[in-house]
Amino acid sequence: MSSASLKKLAIRGAAWTILGYGTSQILRLGSNLVLTRLLVPELFGLMALVNVFIIGLNLFSDIGIGPSIIQNKRGEDPDFLNTAWTIQVIRGFGLWLGCLVIASPVSQFYGEPRLLQLIPIVGLTTIIQGFNSTALFTLNRQMVFGKLTIFNLGSQIVSLTVMIVWAWLNQTVWALVGGMLVGSLLKMLWSHRLDPEKPNCFAWNREIVREITSFGRWIFISTAMTFLAGQADRFILGKLFSLEMLGVYTIAFTFADIPRKVIGRISSQVLFPIFSKQADLPRKSLRAKILQKRWLILITMAFLVAVLVGFGDLVIFAFYDQRYSQAAWMLPILALGLWPLLLSLSIQKVLLAIGKPLYTACGNFLKFIYMLIGLPLGFSLMGIPGAVIVVALNDLPVYGAVIYGLWQEKLSVFVQDIQATLLLVGLLTLVLTGRYILGFGFPIFTFT
Hints:
This protein is an all-alpha fold. It folds into two domains: 38-217, no CATH class; 231-448, no CATH class. It is 81% helix and 0% strand. The protein has 20 helices and no strands. The longest helix has 37 residues, at 283-319. It starts with a helix and ends in an 11-residue tail after the last helix. The mean pLDDT is 82.
């Protein structure tokens, strides 16, 4: 594929990804506003705990089936796809058994009997997702983003509708559970209609299994470390905070996390397929292409972070009632702290594309150690504000490891990162000055 064609695909893919994600977040915000009026904060904290452990099981057993299909030269071979699908189905049942095993100890650790029932029932989504069609990955490989965007939005609309109707009729945690299960089931059934001419069936090719697991061992290490780093806050805060405060923190984090999700989606769906196609280029040429594509992404992210830091607290006060008021001071701190991670996410997929994911895995492991030590210490010294500040600074180890890896592989982007950070500082100055002139003062940092 020519460079011009790749560029067109990248632009189209980024446009679809941003459109899809933007619409998804509007739907999520709208449903969140309705649900937070129907359900108490404690239920959001409870579901946050359930999801932490189910996500953990997923990531600790991830052998990179999706990335293997996207990256491998045989990624559209029916034998390869069907063997990958068979592994995926087996893994889904294994994950649910894992949910059964952990439910009791997790329930006892947090002193929350409801987890004993919730984890296995929500865990049924792992079996359902195991049957998802490999068309989800082949369409990503082919960069057919329009169809994938409609698919994801349609599934989300159904899931959120079920949650809202159920919560209106019965204000319990089962409204959130029911929406998740229905959404997963619809997504699985619909996925098999995305490419009906190439249906999945059970197959087992030992050579392909070895190929997938060989590539996947690095994905396993990387995703396991990603879980430890990315979910450690809720895992540890679930013990330090009350369920109500964990629910409030989850609301703040949901807003602060918007830029990360945007760039994460673009990185996985657009940049990774492109980097994989260009991985054989000389390092100098590959670096030049990366720097050119990355700059627009960093400008956009700097703008989003500046807006969230400058006006995030006003969003909380405008849309949420008094029960969620403490999310107002948390949001700006968490949003600003995401900047090092955004710099990393915009480039780290190139390390996976060239077969060097170990740097990112090491960074995430260091982040986990930092959180394991820092969160209890910050909480003991400064209470809830101390814990939130520790979370805000937790992406520095990941950034350091990724930047070191890029330097080692002759793909350094450090100068561009300095330029982007200076741009962020300038935008923050403008936004905060404008806010002050308009009479809103500075972002609320009232630790109460």
